[in-house]
Amino acid sequence: MSRTLDIFVYFPQDIEHLIKQLELILALKFELVSDDTDNWYEFRNSTITLTVGKHDFENDRDIKFEEYPYNLSIRALNISNELERQKWCDDFASYVFQKLKATESYRLMLVDNLQVKLEEFAPLVKV
């Protein structure tokens, strides 16, 4: 399994509303994807995949997953060089996190490989 960066989002409404917000903020188009057990939304191009869905992670030390119902998971694709793959993933995750942060609308948490909390953000107005 390749490394992911995950942005956890507190959003009090349903996922369809979140997807509409994300499409406007990020200027991306998400598609609904399903397998035998779950549904999620996904944006994919030749180098990056961004999936959005609910999660069932439990709190782990200072990483309070349970406070954020939605998970945006970012992974680089089709890049054979490990450092380049990591840079694509880091850059895209940073772009998404900063775009969401700039709206001042969401509580956010950025986590590396579901193990290391990198950054948290809470808007001044409680959401």
Strand order of the largest sheet: 2-3-4-5-1-6-7
Number of strands: 7
Shape: globular
Give the termini separation.
34 Å
Q: What's the gyration radius in Å?
A: 14 Å
Strand residue percentage: 25-35%
Helical fraction equals 25-40%
Individual helix count: 2
Structural class: alpha+beta
Largest sheet: 7 strands, antiparallel
**Contiguous uncertain segments of 5+ residues:** none
Element pattern in H and E: EHEEEEHEE
Q: Report the mean per-residue pLDDT as an integer.
A: 93
Structural descriptors:
127 residues; seven-stranded antiparallel beta sheet
Report on this model:
- By secondary structure, the chain is α+β, with helices and mostly antiparallel strands.
- Helices cover 26% and strands 33% of the residues.
- It is built from two helices and seven strands.
- The chain has a seven-stranded antiparallel β-sheet with strand order 2-3-4-5-1-6-7.
- The model has no long low-confidence stretch (mean pLDDT 93).
